[in-house]
Amino acid sequence: MKSKTHIISLNLADPFGVAPYTRSKKQVVILTLDDGEEIYCGEGSPSKYYNESLKSVRGAFAKVKKLLVEEEFFFIEALMQKIFEKIPKDNTARAMIEMAIFDYIGKKLNIPLYKYLGLKPANDKQTSFTIGIDTMEIMLEKVERFKQFPILKIKLGRDAKHDIQVMKEIRKRTNRTLRVDANGGWTPEEAIRCIKLLADLGVEYVEQPLSRGCLKRLAELKKKSPLPIFVDEDVHRCDSFHELIGVCDGINLKLIKTGGILEMRRMLANARTFGLQTMLGCMIETSIAVTAAAHIASAFDHLDLDGNLLLADDPYEGMKVENGYLRMPERPGLGVRLKGK
To answer: Of 100, 115, 130, which closes a domain?
Structure first.
């Protein structure tokens, strides 16, 4: 099995603002495996927020590359455990590798990955579309421009006063489902004040109102909050799941945080055990990673799978979205291919 990684640069269709920053470009790592018959793909979209980089992803892959020659891919649980033991902190690299292995398994069996996982295609599920932080005028223009999406996720958290003003104006213009993500940008005082006003505006729930690690304050906020609270930056893998009990109402899982679908399924089981709602999210990434996540989407309560939709030049095609509904590819494996192929 031949393997290689390379970096691609992606342009966003619009500048994308969240509480800590605004970006207009993104670089990701693409992994390709080649057995002489087919090409199998994975993707890593690292975040500095989680202490990962393009260099660290490629370096982690180099440490375990030999295992992809020595081990049997169909024993994926055992193989991913060996990979975890060698690169336990490199969640993005492990997710990228696991995607490519699942792509291999699905193609060899000639079935889409969701069938291999025993799941239905998520064609009856809707994803939210994200409106990044910007000026009032631009955010309102985007609400109108993306009116085909029944669910909007509004990024807030940079300026609490602006947050409330823009949400009031958005609600005047639409009765669509609204969700809010503060990306840890509020203080506890700002959070409860904003959440009470957002409840009056009919917002469905609020994601990551406080900065990562403020779990005691988040538990206090949850007791006072009239809206459900989801965590994103505070949830990663099963080994820290116990810290979330009594702290939130739901969790946002992403492949690059959990390290892949296998760990994500364990997280889903934990969430059900403790009565937490579940959201499947993504990074800004191509259709490789977003489609890989979509194969497990039918198991989740809420979806936020729009990372590829924010790009101006996604080089791949896989899962599509029509009026907010997922449309899964029927091709085997991940079902992703280069555009034009």
So the answer is: 115
Alpha-carbon span 54 to 62, nearest angstrom: 13
229: left (phi over 0), alpha (psi -120 to 50) or beta: beta
CATH number at residue 138: 3.20.20.120
Structure tokens at 144: 């109108």
Count of alpha carbons within 13 Å of 205, Cβ hemisphere only? 19
pLDDT attached to residue 236: 85
Give the pLDDT confidence of 152-179 residue by residue, as tens digits. Answer: 999 999 999 999 999 999 999 999 999 9
Cα–Cα distance for residue pair 137/106, rounded to 1 Å: 46
Q: What global pTM score does this model have?
A: 0.96
CA dihedral angle for residue 113, residue 44, residue 304, residue 51, rounded to 10 degrees: 140
Mean pLDDT of the chain: 96
Cα radius of gyration rounded to whole Å, the chain: 20
Residues 200 and 109 in one domain: no
Burial class (CB in 10 A: 0-12, 13-18, 19+), 114: buried
